[in-house]
Amino acid sequence: MQFQWTPNKVTLLRVVVGFAAVCLFGRGAWPNLLAVALTVTSIALDALDGHIARKKQMATPVGAQLDILGDRMIENVYFTYFAVVGMVSLWLPILFFARGAATDFLRGLAMKAGHSGWGANAMVQTWWGRALVASRWSRGLYAAMKCLCFCYLGLELALTRGRVALVSGLGGDVSATIRMGAQVLTTATAVFCLVRGLPVLLEGWKYFANGVRRSRGVKAAAQEAA
Predict the structure, then answer these.
(1) What would you measure as the largest C-alpha separation in the chain, in angstroms?
(2) Whole-model pTM?
(3) Which of 73, 80, 108, 114 is 20 to 30 Å from the Cα of 63, by its Cα?
(4) Domain count, the chain
(5) Average pLDDT over residues 199-210
(6) CATH at 172
(7) So what's the pLDDT on residue 218?
């Protein structure tokens, strides 16, 4: 039986590559650099799975959900690692986790109501919401920002941190500039993450409200029947 690459297989591969990269961080300067290369590979695979899905017409609702799950796993494991080693605030992975949990919860309610994550039947109906959530430029920019953020932090780890840093003895001004660059990148990525999640939160809230009203109606009917 001939092996064939599918979007879901590519998604699983990029998660494995991303986890392998994080496992290499902190094990020395050269493993850190290899981890940066694997990080770029993982982000590139994120673009490849969508390309395969569109070219071979293999896009499915399950595949879209698996792609989102892969995104969540990658971004959370990276930001958690960099928070643990003290390179970013602990609030950064908490923010990404909370935003992802909230939007995925609302997407799940929308799917129960017959809506999908993408396409004409997507839960996000406004033009500006679709532009922020589903457009190629938005998804590409977000992936590029995360890749730049992860690679910058990885290079900082390899070049300036630890006992085996490739570049040591940097002046205070240079170190402060490098640190400032990391803060700017992580802050910009976090802000864009929240902005992209805003349409899902605003338009998905109605599904939560409808679910609450239905549950109250069922509870009231049960009480009357009793």
Answers:
(1) 78
(2) 0.83
(3) 80
(4) 1
(5) 84
(6) 1.20.120.1760
(7) 67
